[in-house]
# Entry
Amino acid sequence: MNIINVSNRLPITIKGEDITPSSGGLVAALEGLPKDQYSTKWIGWPGSTISDTAHERDIEKKLVDELGCIPVFLSEAEIAAYYEGFSNSTIWPVLHYLADYLRYEPSWWENYLSVNQRFADTVLKHAKEGDLVWVHDYQLMLVPSLIKSAAPELRVGFFLHTPFPVYEVFRCNPKSKHLIVGMLGADQIGFHTVNYLRQFANVTQRTLGLEPELTRIRNEEHTSALGVYPIGINAPKFEATLDSSEFKNRVQELRAVHDNKRIILSVERMDYTKGILHRLDAVDYFLSRLQSTDDLRFVFVSVPSREGVEEYRVLTEEVEARVGRLNGKYSTLRNNPIHFIHGSVDFTDLCAMYAIADIGLVTPLIDGMNLVAKEFIACQRENEGMLVLSEFAGAAEELWQALLVNPYDSASLAETLKSALAMTQQERSARNREMRERVMKYDARHWARSFVEDLQSGSQFAVASPQNALGEIRERLLEVYSQKKHAAIFLDYDGTLREIEREPKLASPTPELTAFFKRLSRQEQCEVTVVSGRSMEDLEQWVGGYPFGLVAEHGARWRPAKAGQWEDLDEGLEYAWKQDILRILRLYQEATPGTFIEEKRSSVVWHFRTANEDFGEWKAYRLAEELAALTANDLIRVRRGKKIVEVCAAQVSKGAAVAKILAGMKSYDFALCAGDDQTDETMFQLSIPKLWSIKVGSGSSSAKFRVANPAALRQLLDLLAQ
Ligand code: GDG
# Structure
């Protein structure tokens, strides 16, 4: 199986004529996939802008032939707008809850769109049937849907390496809806933690109105499975380095360089999410109040990052100035307390520094995962250095034996540092052993394997494609049409024939639905009944002009086809309970802004469609609980429908109405019922010969068949009226 890995950057460096492969975490992860099962190709930006096309062609040939890399060349203007602009100044801050840093220009978005399109086009050009496409990170959020709409049969995965924030923050991005729709093109969407996953599901609900499910999101006919895959480190590379003699030499050398002082080490990209300035506040607090500096040293390795972005330049200047001031304030004849490196260090040196450090001080304000924390633990094979870790890093969920800190609380961070330095060797060792085992076992290879396996097998989650699953029922419908058989058809209205509206009164038939009703009316062999929870007035107004039967109020009233009179299907029933229930519903209405009560003949309904989504759901849950305790008798039932709680007479149901109508019919060759919510399940649960059932939309159901939405149902029923 071929995997096409798509990320902003290719794992290579171009310098003049030289192209060298680089070995980031992603490379290691993909190298860990079994070679006999998977081969990998990469698509991405080669990392430098190349001005002449002949040179581009040479580089492309070399990359494809020698390294399996397919370059997407970007101009300087595109890098400025797509990468530094929209990706790093409009999306990145919001994903990290730092909306204050958000900047936006419409031209950045235009470039983000066109560059994402170019990435998608490159995938489409190179992908063959059966390939798996794996798209990475926030720079390419639109790529999954761009691929999917052109090649629905390709399996596409998307992994987000950053956090995913709550709705209130995510929607600050002016194009948030487009980004969500873009991601939902993927068959499999992965996050580092379950929290990010939950927040994403909530954002899709609140942005697009999709019903959230914890393991997947169903959107029209496409389903995206959601999964949690915490990324790990390149464990074999660390193990091999720790075994090497070069590493041992560097350890000795670096110990001597640092004069055998106790070392507190921080390593990161120079980024405002990493909490460097807050950490310097803690260092100040620590040195001024808790410990003198002569026998200990802070080593900060800050790799230059995104230097084209203004905020990063400002941060670098600020960090340099603050480090200078602190060194001025606390240096003695024997020590400078902060050793600051604004640059990258060699990998073996990095491992040696991790190994000799007494403390790994990793305090991002927020971080998707944070691999430095895991790498520090990997290098504690002999020395028992202690990890002090921000509770806001994704890694904190797995490394809970570290000393967890709130990076905003400088005083407490400094105190924690002091206790870490004072911790016994025994305790450090006990904490590190478990963390190290986990880090070495659940490494980058494990991460890639689990994502790719789920992507490959995930089709089991997909909603059965209507065309295939509906084969049987299509045949029956065609028979009804071609052989003029007599059919009884029961159709719910809202969410089944007609798309749901925010306010129920807005759901009058659309021109499309009106045309559909007209076509259906001409089929005399079909006896159509619209079976709804709505009032008689609504049904008469919207459907009354067609030769259809009408069942109102979930089966309480019936107007047979072509008759002008309504009949009671609930004869002899008592509704005295309604007053008690209404009193409770009024209390909920008053306490939940935007909600309202609807009173019907056989039921009372509390609607919360127009209330705050989460608050409404929560109150509905409480109300249903309260009512269930009150209504533990056989007379009434409490139903949770779509954005409603309804209390109705137990003997009245759509199913009971359908059974009664069918029993009164002289004969029929075929019967069908279709609906979208809980109240329709009473029809689906009838066991009556020749009665077929169709559920519209997602969610569990007793219906035999499923279609994705009202449009798909109308299209199917049009087989009766071709
Ligand atoms: C993003 C997410 C998520 C750093 N300095 C040197 C050096 N490094 C290496 C580290 C580590 C990597 O850079 C940094 O990875 P992080 O995970 O800490 O952070 P981001 O760069 O922000 O990565 C993050 C990650 O994606 C993966 O999904 O964990 O949350 O923000 O591997 O070792 N390497 C060398 N010299 C250095 O000076 N050789």
Summary: Residues 25, 161-162, 231, 267, 269, 301, 303, 344-345, 347, 350, 367-372, 375 surround GDP-alpha-D-glucose (CB under 6 Å).
